[in-house]
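Example noted here:
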Amino acid sequence: MERRDLLRALGAAAALTLLPRDAEAAWARLARAPGAPLRALNASQAAQVAALADVVLPRTDTPSATDVGVVAWVDLIVADYYKDAERTQFTEGLAAIDALAQGGTTGGIGYGPEAAASLIDALERGDRRAAAGSAWWRLKGLVLHGYFTSEKVQKEVLKMNIMPGKFDGDAPMRVPAGGHSRG
């Protein structure tokens, strides 16, 4: 199985279980305010998130993570749904990832497509409790969650129709002879 196929299958399953209120509400808020300024991430952090997200989910015959607006979605989730301590821990973790990418102990891995893949490999093997490792696993979860709950991916990639047909709350109901319906 190809990595992209596995992610698609996992994403479909995750989207169905995790879609409800928070993800859907976050995407709805972003749709109402396209191009809104970042609130939790600064421009450098947003560029960092974009580079890493597009290594996880690059553009192929399907849109990339940044094509569907995952960076804005991550920013909104971190700004509105993280507690202050979680937000601080996340942004400090992004700084630790940046230090690893820019110089750190490896002499600088960078964020280009191949370099970012090496950086992600180092993060995947690293200590999950370290600042960089903790932020990486949170970011990876946010990227996957945001991508697979986006409307574009739901409709164009997964071909999901969450509410097929139409809702008719006033549809006629036949009551069987004797006046009692069976449930």
About this structure: The two ends are 43 Å apart (CA to CA).
